[in-house]
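Hey team,

Sharing the Phospholipid-transporting ATPase run so nobody has to redo it. Sequence (1096 residues) first:
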Amino acid sequence: MKRYVYINDDESSHELYCDNRISNRKYTVLNFLPKNLWEQFSRFMNQYFLLIACLQLWSLITPVNPASTWGPLIFIFAVSASKEAWDDYNRYLSDKKANEKLVWVVRQGIRKHIQAQDIHVGNIVWLRENDEVPCDLVLIGTSDPQGLCYVETSALDGETDLKTRLIPTACMGIDFELLHKIKGVIECPNPDKDIRRFDANLRLFPPFIDNDVCPLTIKNTILQSCYLRNTEWACGVAIYTGNETKLGMSRGIPEPKLTAMDAMIDKLTGAIFVFQIVVVMVLGIAGNVWKDTEARKQWYVLYPLEGPWYELLVIPLRFELLCSIMIPISIKVSLDLVKSLYAKFIDWDSEMIDYETGIPSHATNTAISEDLGQVEYIMTDKTGTLTENRMIFRRCCISGVFYGNESGDALKDTRLLSAVAGCSTDVVQFLTVMAICNTVIPIKSKTGAILYKAQSQDEDALVNAAAQLHMVYVNKNANTLEIRFNSSVIKYEVLETLEFTSDRKRMSVVVKDCQNGKIVLLSKGADEAILPYAYDGQQTRTFIEAVEQYAQLGLRTLCLAWRELTEDEYQEWSLMFKEASSTLIDREWRIAEVCTRLEHDFEVLGVTAIEDRLQDGVPETIETLRKAGINFWMLTGDKQNTAIQIALSCNFISPEPKGQLLLIDGKTEDEVCRSLERVLLTMRITSSEPKDVAFAVDGWALEIALKHYRKAFTELAILSRTAICCRVTPSQKAQLVELLKSCDYRTLAIGDGGNDVRMIQQADIGVGISGREGLQAARAADYSIGKFRFLKRLILVHGRYSYNRTAFLSQYSFYKSLVICFIQIFFSFISGVSGTSLFNSVSLMAYNVFYTSVPVLASVLDKDLSEGTVMQHPQILFYCQAGRLLNPSTFAGWFGRSLFHAIVVFVITIHAYAYEKSEMEELSMVALSGCIWLQAFVVALETNSFTIVQHLAIWGNLVAFYVINWIFSAIPASGMYTIMFRLCRQPSYWITMFLIVAAGMGPVLALKYFRYTYRPSKINTLQQAERMGGPILTLGNIEPQQRSIEKEVSPLSISQPKSRSPTPVYEPLLSDSPNSSRRSLGSRSSSSYSRNCKDN
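Structure output:
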């Protein structure tokens, strides 16, 4: 689909396309309440509580006042709705500010000042220097005589370097006074969110030009939210407006990510719900039986002889209402609150600030912090992520001569300097390609010095190196380049630019020497994109050796080449290129096809080698995270040997004999099959050996493996802790992340550039580095950091603490609800199984919302170990990865504790106060007091590090319980009049509280002491060492062995997985035995296929 934009036509486009009003609001005043309620009730848990609250309105069945459920429910909904309303109001203010900004447009041939929201498609918009672009425009004029303008695109892609934009060739030379009268039509595609692509055509109406088609690209546009810089004025035609701009189309709410812990909580909630239904059915049947047998014998029970048709449902429904609190109503709000605090802890962490750039760490996604503690695979980019992305020209090979090998710096090599001074033809051609085969823009500073604005760090390094060798790129005037070599000035006319693509892996320019009229094709690119296309007869062995030698040193290589073109050859090709550039369908593919018709028969000039240094702390970070059991994959577009050398230097892989690197290569299916089979066989044989085995694969072989041998490659991925994937495209990076996710691994992807965005968004956790390639990766990620080394602290400290705290909070929330529910169930056995509530409505509401929530929220400050100990002993992350703190086994423990504590509270309370010893209200208050006392000690027992905040939350909450109830006891209409006054004066009440705490906490303390003393975990050992102040030299082996794989190998049946062995999820997930094997939640097995892999 496409649209036709008529330039400067005030009528034709108004009804077809929207105006420029921006609206990012989610709600309006009228639809806020129904829409927000609909969203909240779309969740199963909210639907459940709404049903319970509605049932409580039926006075015949409700055992408590409906306020006990409606109060918390309305409070929780009000909190969520208020947050949504506040966020939406801020969006409204932002939209209002943008919509009411004043801009200049042409209306009926006259320039007028209007609000930005009144711009329509086809209007001509005028901009002045430093103006923000109000909508997507196609440039038609600028103050620059050559039709250039400079824009800052940081709001779009985070890149701070200025970009050049130019007017279409059809608009060149149009007088300033005539621009507001221009007429024509732009044929362009319908709005999309691709900010790097715009394939359109322009036709100007006479008298400007006679309907000649002029192709348009993204370089002829300036997009909404960019800023005009270093240009006095510019004007353009509005093509996309309002929410249909490229920026507006790319806005949106990303798909929420479900953490492993959230998934487990959902499963446990489902299990509790099933348990609740069973209890309700059993008690409902028992209640009806008792009613029809025993109840009618009691003179004080006035049941009618014949009841209504729904009589059998009354008691079961009463028990359903009583047991509804088994699922805590406040768990979601509590978890959302503490997760927001976890994210703030990351933002506030002063140890994760990059002081070199002043960039702090930032958590964009506040819902997945605990997943950081369960990461098993890290997929990392290389350039700019592991390295600094600061390119330095180090060596080169020109016509078979190596420069810089002795000194390590070609710029200081006297032989090269002599060749430059002697105007060696080969060297001059080589330097010419370095200087002008690029998209760099030279800018003269006020002091006269020439500064280069480059979109690529490689191009910046090459142009600066050429300048230091006296081939200085001086100026660019429209299509004319000026080069100063020694004392002479050389001018070239740029005829065409063949831009770099990840498929072609090279870029070229066609230039015409203004002195002799020769047309030359200059190219640079990867070795596999240049050397195979050399002319017949040229010896490329020296260049291949140079590429290999430089790659062994970890340097980035580029091959430079050129080819002289005849006038006829160029003209014939130019017509095809113009036709391909004008098509609106598959333009990129057709241009690439036309480019290949020209990029052949190269004369290879030489090879450049550029150094990209490792960031500080990268080797130490990788080594520490490896000790934590995290596997690493490097996904890079760089050459294999370069990637391997970087991997060796940063502890990514181990050198021989400790490590072994296996290569997967091949250009055909059979070659890749044999290579994959050989590597997989070796990997299986060495899987039981203490050897660090890794594999490396290039993009071509990877594409074949993923397409034809996916199962075999997946098995290889499971067996290997380390992989190096070279020459991979952004889509292949995302495919590899998806492959590991399909095997139930928790993946983290980290990168710094726009080519890493797909990988970052595909992973369970995306981390972006705010680097020299801009902020695209950081903006698309869940977390952004300034340097790779901060990843260690992000995972080991923030991830681990978040996991531990969330595991306790979620299980405690169920525990406190189950305690009160079990007491209600036990009470039913002495109240005729009638579904009568022991507790009044006010007490139940206060119990859920206040008494038991405040102490546990203080757990967000709890630390089982100090940060220094955690960083020193990273292997304890295994406990989080294996789900030791939240799984069916630990939940069963909390379930048992709640049942035990309910029995203790009920039995002691009943024997002390029941059977005519006190009123019903006193019995209820004693039981509630026992629950509050027990839970204060439970929270205190589970707290590892006390601060003043935690003491206030735990013991201050206990004091507040009595203060609040004394106040209620003083109110006659409260239903609790004088109860707490009477109880607190009785010694038996305090004795009862002591007995409840002693009986409830005694066995728990004894069990904890036994486990701490006789079966301590590694964490207990570290805690003891911290308390005693002594060092821990070794923790022993808590790292699981590699998963055992069947040793028998059959020809490519290796790709067929074995069925998983049925391993119970409640089996201990970590053992202190050296032979322990890790199992993650979801029952991962140790058979031939230890995961439930999905074969696409």
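Residues 1039-1096 have pLDDT under 50 and may be disordered.

Ping me if you want the raw files.
A.
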